[in-house]
Write a structure and sequence with these properties.
heterodimer; A: mainly beta; four-stranded antiparallel sheet; 1 helix; 9 strands; 14% helix; B: mainly beta; 10 strands; elongated
């Protein structure tokens, strides 16, 4: 039995290092494509990411009646390590994903998942009532439901001369 | 040695947790999209741990099997479309599938798995005969 992982000549040719590189390259291209595709939304990228180098959880956003729904994939995270804060027009999801495995002195680790802190600020399409927000974490998925603010109705603004 | 078995098509390697377009793979049981989840593999000597991100999956819809030296993972993911008008969509919904070729020296009969917080953790213990051990040197 070989103790050297993924280095045999019988390998498919895609070793972990190249897999990780290809994965990073693909994800980066997808991210660029995503930002390009999402640009029509209010003339800018709809979602804002955190600091460079941070991993960015994938998010879905929808609007239904008097509610706004946001769903984020956050697998392997203790709900106590997730912080959800809401202002009238912005939802911020931040936290930290801690690794459950540690590299051993004589073992090896092949890592594809993302760990560390993350932060996502999501501009909301309408103002919400910060007091009427629920967040639920189940099976690695965070779902946030926000009630729209009744005072968020648009009004005509006079143009002064 | 635990080696991920790659799909035949090099393009069918999309991850689940990144905003990537879905890459369908053949799935006779489910005609929906199938994703290849991210996995961490860690060797602890007595066992190898596979930690796989599978957010949204249900434990009772998972199938972990071992056959012909290949450990296969499959997780059924129920649909979860957000209600109303979609304003942003970064990840697709589909089942998870991935397989790994195990080398010799593992005790397949003792493989165990647990699912918690969207993460499937699989313990693959080594046979006692091949586990690393320290040999005591006694003075003669």
């Amino acid at each position: 039995m070989s103790l050297i992982p993924f280095r045999t000549k019988r390998s498919t040719g895609m070793e972990p290092s190249s897999l990780a590189t290809m994965s990073d390259f693909r994800n980066e291209m997808n991210r660029l494509l995503e930002s390009f595709v999402s640009r029509p939304l209010m003339g800018q990228s709809w979602f804002e990411s955190g600091e460079p180098g941070q991993w960015i959880p994938a998010i879905d956003l929808s609007e239904s009646g008097g509610e706004i729904h946001v769903r984020a994939e956050l697998p392997g995270i203790d709900p106590k390590d997730v912080d959800v804060s809401v202002s009238e027009d912005r939802l911020v999801i931040s936290g930290e994903k801690k690794s459950s495995t540690e590299k051993t002195a004589d073992g090896w680790t092949h890592r594809e998942s993302h760990y560390g802190s993350f932060s996502r600020a999501i501009p909301l399409p309408e103002a919400v009532d910060p007091a009427k927000v629920t967040a639920r974490y189940d099976k690695g998925v965070l779902t946030v439901v926000m009630k729209k603010s009744p005072t968020s109705t648009s009004r005509k603004v006079p143009v002064l001369t | 040695m635990v080696t991920p078995t790659e799909p035949a098509s090099p393009t069918a390697t999309s991850t689940r947790t990144e905003p990537s377009p879905a890459q369908p793979q053949s799935s006779p049981a489910a005609p929906c999209l199938t994703y290849q989840p991210n996995v961490d593999i860690c060797d602890y000597g007595t066992e190898v741990l596979l930690v796989t991100d599978m957010p949204g999956a249900k434990a009772d819809g998972m199938n972990v099997s071992f056959e012909d030296g290949v450990l296969s993972l499959f997780a059924k993911v129920p649909p979860r479309t957000l209600p109303g008008r979609q304003l942003g969509h970064e990840y697709g919904i589909g089942d998870y599938r991935r397989s790994f070729r195990l080398g010799e020296g593992f005790d397949a009969s003792q493989i165990s798995a647990e699912y918690r917080r969207g993460v499937l953790t699989i313990h693959v213990p080594r046979l006692a005969a091949v586990r690393p051990r320290k040999i005591e040197v006694r003075p003669a």
